[in-house]
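quick one, two chains, predict together pls
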Amino acid sequence: MSGRVGHFYIDETCIGCGACDHACPGKVDAVYEVPGDFLGRFAIVLEECIDCALCVPLCPVDCIHDARTEGIDLTEGAGGYTRIKELQAWARARDAEPPA
Amino acid sequence: MSNPLALPVDVEPLITSLPLSEEGLIHYEEQFSRHYQGWSEILMENHERLQRGSYSLHWMNTDGANWGKRAKPSSRGLTYTDTNRIPAYGTLPEHAEWRNFAPRGSVREPYRERMPVLDEYVVMERDDVWADNVLTLYEEAKARQWNATRDIPWGELEPLPEDLEKATCQLCTFLTEVEFVAGDFPAKWLYRIPQDFLEVKSFLATQIMDEARHQEVFRKRAIAGGGLLHASPGFEWALKAILEAPTHTMGTFLLNLLGEGLVLSIFRSGEMIAKTFVDKEIFRRCLQDEARHVSYGVLQLKTHLDAAPDREAALEQMHRFADVGEMVILTAFTEAALVEPVAILLAGSLGKIDQGMQGLAHVWTMFIEEYFARCDRAGFDRRARSRIPLSAPWAS
């Protein structure tokens, strides 16, 4: 183990298409589907990522970032694919209501 | 030329009890017995050679072939990406010339003049079908196939109160209806894309399989729970607009990027909409398939626009198409047969439908924002031009 880690990460706007999964070189295989995530999103194991960036241009929602140049922001603002959080918040409030 | 095999050049009508189209059969007979003669010349040559007891063995000649350039598998197996590392096999033409089935990378040039031409292959420009993620999406699609008969725990389907069961079954009726076009559209174009773009054809074949499974699973869910409910004219017009789009890129935009995007938004909301574990499992599995289709649609539009010789003209053409397409798709998204059951499912009962409409307003905004984000990624800014309201019409 060299102790080196990669710098690419997938933010929460991933839609789970998996294009990045098979772009990752087979011997590296740093991309994985987050277990138990209903939205089927993917993540990158930093200890295995080799910073090749092959996955980046294949993403349809631009959710793969290089932390060295773009910083780390897992939430990626308030638009687009983060809107589901508003629905989730509404559903939590719905579920918290006492039964009639 | 003599006819040593006594070929049936003047074919008599077949005697059959099958309800064949007589007109179609006569046309076929005429084409292949009177007008097309390439095949009969080849057949006669073959027959003469075989009668002489002579062998050709021309196929062992590797001149012009790429013989010995062996593909090496990666640790995942042997993918198209691996075979395409050999330029002779992996270089896609910008403009396809072969309107037949001769494989890209095979020895085909010596036979060009004797090959038939398939008039149906009309999508000859690579950038009208290509997307940079099509190879990896194809691998992903194969890895994630599932079986709507076996992989859904149908035996655990719980009975629901009548209002929720009817709402679920109506939503499944809508989804069955729309999944039909999601299979028919790629099928229509698969048949028009020449073999040189085989990777795209392979991916579209997985999309057709995915959509067959989706209509199957939603049909089964409805019939297992209560029954199919109402088809809807509003859905039908949206589906017709997709199927009759004038180009592959335009139709892919309307189906994969917009229409399937809408369905993806519904599936992504599945945790809040589904009322049983079985329904959640159905949404979860369909969501992953749908994401691949959306993903292809986004990068296909990007490829098309990036490669356009006159980008502004290409953008304007797409905008004109989207101006109409968005409104037709919106017809489906405002249908009572979709809006009301989703609102009831979100709220938890028919009695709380008003509350559900508030939740559905979030789904509306989510769908529109996700759609605009996809357009942005493709380099197609619809925000200024689109007439779809950002907020649901019932939300003040």
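Chain B touches chain A through 47 residues (CB under 8 Å).
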